[in-house]
Write a structure and sequence with these properties.
By secondary structure, this protein is an alpha/beta fold. Helix content is 34%, strand content 24%. It has two domains: 4-247, Ribonuclease Z/Hydroxyacylglutathione hydrolase-like (Metallo-beta-lactamase, Chain A); 255-395, 3-Layer(aba) Sandwich (Rossmann fold), CATH 3.40.50.360. It has helices spanning 50-60, 76-79, 82-85, 98-108, 113-119, 186-201, 205-216, 235-246, 265-278, 294-303, 320-332, 351-361, 385-395; strands at residues 4-6, 9-11, 16-17, 20-21, 26-28, 31-34, 39-42, 68-71, 93-97, 120-123, 128-132, 135-141, 151-157, 163-167, 222-225, 255-259, 284-288, 306-314, 317-318, 338-345, 365-366, 371-374. α6 packs across α10 and α7 runs antiparallel to α8 (235-246). The protein binds MU-OXO-diiron (FEO). MU-OXO-diiron (FEO) is lined by residues 73, 75, 77-78, 146-147, 168, 226-227.
Length: 398
C-alpha cells in the first residue's frame, strides 16, 4: 500500500506457537511507514529471522533514515529482534507504552538499558506523533490484548488510508505470500482468526468487550495486523466476529464431546452419547484426545453450547491427555457453556469427579448428573435417553 511497506517474516515452518498448533504456519508482521518527511518502523520479528528483517528494511530505506521505532507489544514474536535492530537505528526515537518500557527492560536488561534510558518515549492513551504530510499516529493502549504492555497505533492520513496497526488483535497464525484479506481464501482466514481468538484471547473476552467499541469507532480503512493477513475489504466481518466471540455468542445449539479412552469403555460411552444426541437433531462433534489437537478442540469448545468431557480413571484421577486438555480449557475459560462429565473406572473412580470440579471452577453450568461405568459397559448401560433429556433441557431445548 502507498507509503506502508511490509518488512516482516512469513514463517512457513512453525507448527507450534507456545503450545498452540499452527497447522498453517504464521507470520511476524512489521511495517515501515514513510511520510516523505519522516520514516517510522513498527514492530520487529522473532529473533532467528532478524537478518531477513534487516534485509527487508534495507530494501525500503537506509535504516539510519528511520526517525521513529514503535513497539506495540513486547512478546518475543514481535520484539525478539528489538535489541539487534536498535543498533542499526542511530537516529530513531523509540516509542512504547508505559508498561511496554518496563517489559522491554524485563526482557532484555543491559542489552537495551542505555537506549531505553536515553531515547525512548513512553506513550499513554491519546498521545500522538505527527510525521508530516497529513500523517499522524495516535497511540491507544489495549492492556491484556494480549499482554499488559499491548497497544495499537492508529495512523490517520489526510491524503491516504487510515491504518490501524493492531498488533495481536485481529491476527491469525496463517502463512501466506499475499498480504490482504481479499487476496486469500476468506473462509480459511476466518477459521484461523477464530482459532487464534480461541487459543490466545478467549480468556480476555471481558476486556475485549470493553475495548472493542473504542477500536471499532475509529475511521479505519485498513488494519495492519502482526500475524497473518491484513484487512481492507472485510474489516466489518472481523470486527463483527470479535464482537460475537467476546460475548460468548454461539451460532447453534451444538454439543462437543471430548474424551480419551484406555481400554475402550469411555469411548463406548462417548460414541453412544454422540449417536443418541445427534439422533435428536442436535449437531455433535466428537474428539478423542489421543488423536485430536487441543488447540483445535478449544476452538470447537468456544462455539459449542454444551461441552461433554469423558475420562477413564487412572491412578484415582484423570487420564493424562484429558488432564492436559482440561487444564488448557480451564485457563481459556469458554463462556456460556453447559457441562457434563462421564467416564469409566475399575474400582475407586475419581476422574469424573475431577472433571466436574474443574468445570465448576470455570463457571461452566455443570450438570449434577454424571455417567460413571465400572469396567466395561453392557449394551443396556448405554441408553442415555433420560440424561440427554436433562442435557437438552439445560441447553435451552432443541
Ligand atoms: Fe503475537 Fe502476544 O504476541
Amino acid at each position: 500500500m502507498k507509503d506502508i511497506y511490509y518488512v516482516g517474516y512469513v514463517d512457513w515452518e512453525v507448527r507450534n506457537f507456545h503450545g498452540y498448533s499452527t497447522h498453517k504456519g504464521s507470520s511476524y508482521n512489521a511495517y515501515i511507514v514513510k511520510s516523505g518527511e519522516n520514516t517510522v518502523l513498527i514492530d520487529t520479528v522473532k529473533r532467528p529471522y532478524f537478518e531477513h528483517f534487516l534485509k527487508n528494511i534495507k530494501e525500503v530505506c537506509d535504516p539510519s533514515e528511520i526517525n521513529y521505532f514503535i513497539t506495540n507489544h513486547v512478546e518475543m514474536d514481535h520484539s525478539g529482534s528489538f535489541p539487534l535492530i536498535i543498533k542499526h537505528l542511530p537516529n530513531a526515537e523509540l516509542i512504547a507504552s508505559e508498561r511496554g518500557v518496563d517489559v522491554l527492560k524485563a526482557h532484555f536488561h543491559q542489552e537495551v538499558e542505555e537506549d531505553l534510558f536515553n531515547r525512548i518515549r513512553a506513550v499513554k492513551e491519546g498521545d500522538t506523533l505527527d510525521i508530516g504530510n497529513g500523517k499522524k499516529f495516535t497511540f491507544v493502549p489495549i492492556p491484556m490484548i494480549h499482554w499488559p504492555d499491548s497497544m495499537v497505533s492508529f495512523m490517520t492520513d489526510e491524503i491516504g488510508k487510515n491504518a490501524l496497526f493492531s498488533n495481536d488483535a485481529f491476527g491469525q497464525h496463517y502463512a501466506t505470500s499475499k498480504r490482504w484479506d481479499d487476496e486469500n481464501d476468506l473462509c480459511e482466514v476466518m477459521q484461523e482468526a477464530e482459532k487464534y481468538y480461541a487459543n490466545i484471547l478467549l480468556h480476555l473476552s471481558g476486556i475485549i468487550a470493553k475495548v472493542l467499541p473504542k477500536v471499532g469507532a475509529l475511521p479505519i480503512d485498513v488494519i495492519c495486523t502482526s500475524h497473518g493477513v491484513c484487512w481492507r475489504t472485510h474489516i466489518g466481518e472481523i470486527v463483527e466476529a470479535y464482537t460475537k466471540w467476546c460475548k460468548g455468542e454461539i451460532e447453534e445449539n451444538s454439543v462437543l464431546i471430548v474424551y480419551d479412552t484406555m481400554w475402550g469403555s469411555t469411548e463406548k460411552i462417548a460414541k453412544a452419547l454422540s449417536d443418541q444426541i445427534s439422533h435428536r437433531g442436535i449437531p455433535v462433534k466428537r474428539f478423542r484426545l489421543t488423536y485430536a489437537d487441543y488447540s483445535d478442540v478449544i476452538t470447537e469448545a468456544m462455539k459449542a453450547r454444551a461441552i461433554l468431557i469423558g475420562s477413564p480413571t487412572l491412578n484415582n484421577g484423570l487420564f493424562p491427555s484429558v488432564a492436559e486438555y482440561i487444564s488448557y480449557q480451564k485457563g481459556l475459560k469458554p463462556m456460556n457453556k453447559v457441562g457434563f462429565a462421564f467416564g469409566s473406572y475399575g474400582w475407586g473412580g475419581g476422574a469424573v469427579k475431577e472433571i466436574v470440579e474443574v468445570m465448576k471452577a470455570t463457571k461452566i453450568d455443570v450438570m449434577e448428573e454424571t455417567i460413571e461405568i465400572k469396567f466395561v459397559p453392557r449394551p443396556e448401560d448405554l441408553d442415555f435417553k433420560e440424561i440427554i433429556n436433562k442435557l437438552v433441557e439445560k441447553m435451552g431445548g432443541n
